[in-house]
Amino acid sequence: MPDRTIVITGATDGLGRALSGALARQPATTLILHGRNQSRLDELATTLADAPASIHTIRADFPELTQVHRLADEITDHISVLVNNAGIGGGEPDGTDRRLTVDGHELRFAVNHRAPFALTGACCRCSTPEPPPVSSTSLPSARPRSTSTTPPSNTATRACASTASPNWP
């Protein structure tokens, strides 16, 4: 199996964590694991330290688009697969209050839609000859409640935001 680099956003919990654990067991794999909490990223890296895959972590908070762009700048070289898993659900942290990001966007829109769109667009414009396969797995309001740690086998899709304006987001 050829070397491959897989980026997983939202890797510290739920499906992202389960997928990280499963992929870490595969040799010739580099995982770039994203999260917004450095201590949770450090704990995940420690948990996966004995796995055959090479593990790297990167922190970025998706409500802030500048952090999404910084993440994209750091990861876009030689990505084989991008898994857009980061998301924010319908309950806390904001309950019934409408919260805006520092960029002035509604929090859930920024995290669940704008950030993965920007990240995917940046990865599709990278210097590799072919855009990476992209999987968008995070639909927090539609997630079934499950205790299974086995990632679904049908999440991989090929997508590219090639028709998006290079100036947005």
Polypeptide structure, described:
With 169 residues, the chain is α/β, with parallel strands linked by helices. 30% of the residues lie in helices and 15% in strands. It has helices at residues 14-24, 38-47, 65-75, 107-124, and strands at residues 4-8, 29-35, 54-59, 81-84, 134-136. The chain has a five-stranded parallel β-sheet, with helices on both faces. Helix 4 (107-124) links the parallel strand 4 and strand 5. Helix 3 packs parallel to helix 4 (107-124). The longest helix has 18 residues, at 107-124. The protein starts with a strand and ends in a 33-residue tail after the last strand. Residues 139-169 have low confidence and may be disordered.
Keywords:
169 residues, 5-stranded parallel β-sheet, 5 strands, 30% helix
Biggest β-sheet: strands ordered side by side in the sheet: 3-2-1-4-5
Radius of gyration: 15 Å
How far is the N terminus from the C terminus?
35 Å
Name the poorly predicted regions: 139-169
Mean pLDDT: 79
Please outline the major beta sheet.
5 strands, parallel
Shape: globular
**What is the count of DSSP helices, taking H or I runs of 4+ residues?**
4
What is the element string, with H for helices and E for strands? EHEHEHEHE
Q: Level of helix content? A: 25-40%
Helix and strand composition category: alpha/beta
Taken as a percent bin, the fraction of beta residues is 5-15%
